[in-house]
Design goal:
Elements: E1 5-13, E2 26-34, E3 44-52, H1 57-60, E4 80-90, E5 100-106, E6 110-113, E7 120-121, H2 138-151, E8 158-161, H3 169-178, E9 182-187, H4 190-198, E10 204-207, H5 214-221, E11 226-231, H6 235-242, E12 245-253, H7 273-276, E13 280-283, H8 293-305, E14 313-317, H9 322-328, E15 337-341
Parallel strand pairs: 8-9, 8-11, 9-10, 11-12, 12-13, 14-15
Antiparallel strand pairs: 1-2, 3-4, 3-6, 3-15, 4-5, 5-7
Helix pairs in contact: 2-3, 5-6
Length: 345
């Protein structure tokens, strides 16, 4: 195998997107690749096993912005994102053939990764490898950083999670329950609402699409108000939460998926509540907390193995299914963490 040239199926980004992304904004093509790292390079050559579909990728489909924390995709080049891969060849001293890694890779069968600083070696394989696109990868670190590091929950506090059945939300709710909080989640279908209560152990959950008045809905579920809001959606939900905050409330701003496809994002009208309630609203990016990854594994791996935490994945088979899987995030088609299987070994 080593050094031979093989065909390499790829998901190519066609051109910058405005409005809602479509499957036709991507296409699947085949090129070829040598299964060897170029002489003298410190890159690693990997076979991609599992790819992660994440809402932040919508921003990478837009024209480059000066303010963005991560570059836009290049039209005519493969999409890139988090994934789980197996090292086939390495010019880097930290990685060897056979290592399993997670980090930023290409949406293709094989990738030559030069930015090896984004790769984490996988040591624990007693759990499904796909978990390293989710609960044991970037979404898991996002839930951990936003809840533990930013919001510092205390037993008995009232916690609200939006987009609660997604890759991050399902974990935030379960972590908060383990800490002894009262947890309510919102989702966009009744099936997802049932999942939140029956599988993830949320105290209550509601379908936001069936609530004509979100302020009243939150007052119903939180008559005493909200201590912690894990923000995934933005827009009208954020406004409603601001009107229901308790004194010294905390909001961890993880994402605003309701705004990503809008030409003109909605404004927020109730920010003065932050003053009146002496509350904090903090935006954050998971990679800023990657130094805490070993602590996070110590916390979460035993909980997974003891069955204290469950994780739901929505699996799409094959690279050909990747464009539809990514686009489906923005219409709420997925139930749980959206993963694309490229190869199982």
């Amino acid at each position: 195998m080593a050094g031979e040239e093989v065909s390499n199926k790829q998901v190519i980004f066609r051109d910058y997107v405005s409005g809602s992304p479509k499957e036709s904004d991507m296409c699947v093509t085949t090129s070829s690749i040598k299964l060897k790292v170029p002489e003298g390079s410190k890159a690693v050559l990997v076979k991609n096993l599992y790819l992660s579909c994440d809402p932040y990728m919508r921003g990478r489909m837009s024209r480059p912005l000066i303010a963005s924390y991560i570059g836009s995709f290049q039209p005519g080049s493969p999409i890139g994102g988090y994934g789980v891969s197996k090292v086939l060849d390495s010019g880097h001293p930290n990685f060897k053939k056979g290592d399993l890694v997670w980090g930023i890779t290409g949406w293709e069968e094989y990738s030559l990764i030069t930015a090896t600083e984004s790769l984490f070696k996988i040591h624990d394989t007693d759990v499904p490898l796909s978990y390293y696109t989710g609960i044991l990868g970037m979404p898991g670190m996002t839930a951990y950083a936003g809840l533990y590091e930013i919001c510092s929950p205390k037993k008995g506090e009232y916690v609200f999670v939006s987009a609660a059945s997604g890759a991050v939300g399902q974990l935030v709710g379960q972590f908060a329950k383990l800490l002894g909080c009262y947890v309510v989640g919102s989702a966009g279908t009744n099936d997802k609402v049932n999942l939140l209560k029956s599988k993830f152990g949320f105290d209550e959950a509601f379908n936001y699409k069936e609530e004509p008045d979100l302020v009243a809905a939150l007052q119903r579920y939180f008559p005493e108000g909200i201590d912690i809001y894990f923000e995934n959606v933005g827009g009208k939900m954020l406004d409603a939460v601001l009107q229901n905050l308790r004194d010294h409330g905390r909001i961890a701003v993880c994402g605003m998926i309701s705004q990503y496809n809008l030409e003109h994002p909605e404004g927020v009208h109730n920010l003065s509540a932050l003053i009146l309630k002496q509350a904090r609203m903090v935006g954050f990016l998971a990679p800023s907390f990657y130094d805490k990854y070993p602590n996070y594994l110590e916390l979460v791996l035993p909980s997974i193995k003891e069955g204290k935490i469950t994780y739901v994945e929505d699996i799409a088979e094959g690279l050909e299914s990747a464009p539809a899987a990514l686009v489906g995030l923005f219409t709420g088609r997925n139930v749980g963490k959206q993963v694309v299987v490229v190869a199982r070994e």
